[in-house]
Amino acid sequence: MNFDYSFIIDLHGQDSIEATSSVLNALFAFDENKNYEYFDIITGNGSGALKFVVSDLLETENYRYKFLNQNQSIIRVYRKKR
């Protein structure tokens, strides 16, 4: 059996304030549930503003992350840096 201990949030259609709130809520849920190994954030292609907002927020909050695709529209978030 292959268990996927992750979840996804999609920020399509959100402005930077809504996206920040969504990501902070997801980070809280992520920290509360130790069963999750990571979670993915879909920022979409658009202007690219959300990927910068999200990556800056993740760095400020001290989370490890990586972009999963070439256009950097999907971000995988891992546990905080130690």
TrEMBL record:
One Pfam family in the UniProt entry: Smr
Boundaries of every Smr domain copy: 9-80
Classification via InterPro entries: Smr_dom (IPR002625), Smr_dom_sf (IPR036063)
Gene3D superfamilies for this protein: 3.30.1370.110
Protein name: Smr domain-containing protein
Species of provenance: Metamycoplasma auris
